[in-house]
Amino acid sequence: MKKLFSFLFENLLQLIYFIAFESALYFGLQYLLFDQPFTQDTKDPTIVPRWVSVVYFILIYLAVIIGAMLVLNNLVPRKHKHQITRWFWLALALILPLLIILLNSQTIPAE
């Protein structure tokens, strides 16, 4: 029973850390890349108004996730490395919903 409680507590703690890390990363990148007022240089319509910011968001997100995985792989004992890989794949899968939320939250200014 004690092992089960310890296992559940560790997984809950990992989930809390993961959510905190992902939230800080998402809101930090949203503040850095999407907080400026939008000005469209050309009159041509685009599917994604801030596509350069979206590409930067994807690249920086991937760089931070891969960097965090590499740092944690060096710090965590060998018996817990499979857990880091699980959270890494979850973070990679989470990029698509984060992009959908980010693009839907951006408002296109009225002309």
TrEMBL record:
It comes from the Bacteria. This is Uncharacterized protein. Keywords: Membrane, Transmembrane, Transmembrane helix. The chain crosses the membrane at residues 12-34, 54-75, 87-105.
